[in-house]
Amino acid sequence: MITTYSAVLVCIPTYNESANIESLVRRALDAVPGASILIIDDSSPDGTGDIADGLASGNPLVSVMHRPAKSGLATAYLDAFRYGLGKGYTRMVEMDADGSHAPEHLPAMLAASMDAGVGLVIGSRYVPGGRTEGWPLSRKILSKAGNSYVRLLTPLSVRDATAGYRVFTDDVLRSLDLGSVTSRGYSFQIEMALLVSATGLRIMEVPITFRERESGTSKMSRAVILEALWRTTVWGTTGRRGRASARPPLPANTESTHAESTVM
């Protein structure tokens, strides 16, 4: 079991999450002591960025990346991964800002990421021990049907390819051409899993309890769902994401910056 988390970067994209971000960050710091938190805020009009700055001013483990406009989940994580690789972190965590991903699951997920040959750990709702809370039956059916569709059309065998609670190793991220990622919405999760799978590194699933947000507004929409279905169909029928977009590994000390983002 990991007892120190100084090489871990927890990446939390935010847009209008003022009701949730403070509590989530404090829980994450308690769950994985010594881990760093990076909040990627897309100029939230509700003041989320200001709250994040306040958290950062009181704790050197918290940083904030300010982006000038709402630019989507995928680019937020890609910017965060580049930042983390440049700073030498060896584990990058994806975590939703709305509290649906309990930070208390992180120790088990990080421990699984230490197994030999593992490139990605998914906090899974659909392996034994995993579950969802607060979802209507229609949402559960849609989610499970979507994951079944991914398994049917692509080489992925994971039960929860659409899950957004993840741990990537630096090795797998360095092996991928992150600039080739085309998704902008939640299909990003499927695309990244396909790329990891194609490297030959293993994907592990650790059971979690996913809880529907209590505050704020969901970012899920019909457009997001349609994008995921369309892209999965294209990937499945063409096999384009069946081969990893690989490149020579980045040096561990390479600083990575985003021209339109500031980190404080």
Give a nutshell description of this structure.
By secondary structure, the chain is an alpha/beta fold. It is built from 8 helices and 10 strands.
What attributes characterize this protein structure?
264 residues; alpha/beta; two-stranded parallel sheet; 8 helices; 36% helix; globular
**Uncertain segments:** 242-260
Spatial strand sequence of the major β-sheet: 8-5-7-4-1-2-3-10
Number of strands: 10
Tell me the radius of gyration. 17 Å
Order of helices and strands: EHEHEHEHEEHEHHEEHE
| Strand content range | 15-25%
Number of helices: 8
Helix content: 25-40%
Shape field: globular
How far the N terminus sits from the C terminus, by CA atoms, comes to 32 Å
The major β-sheet equals: 8 strands, mixed
Structural class estimated from helices and strands = alpha/beta
Output mean pLDDT: 87
Structural description of this entry:
This protein is of the alpha/beta class. Helix content is 36%, strand content 18%. An 8-stranded mixed sheet has the order 8-5-7-4-1-2-3-10, sandwiched between helices. Strand 1 (8-14), helix 1 (21-31) and strand 2 (36-41) form a beta-alpha-beta unit. Helix 5 (137-153) packs parallel to helix 8 (222-238) and helix 7 (187-199) runs parallel beside helix 8 (222-238). The radius of gyration is 17 Å and the shape is globular.
Give the secondary structure arrangement, pairings included.
Layout: E1 8-14, H1 21-31, E2 36-41, H2 48-57, E3 62-66, H3 73-87, E4 91-94, H4 106-113, E5 118-124, E6 131-133, H5 137-153, E7 166-169, H6 170-174, H7 187-199, E8 202-207, E9 209-211, H8 222-238, E10 262-263
Parallel strand pairs: 1-2, 1-4, 2-3, 5-8, 6-9
Antiparallel strand pairs: 3-10, 4-7, 5-7
Helix pairs in contact: 5-8, 7-8
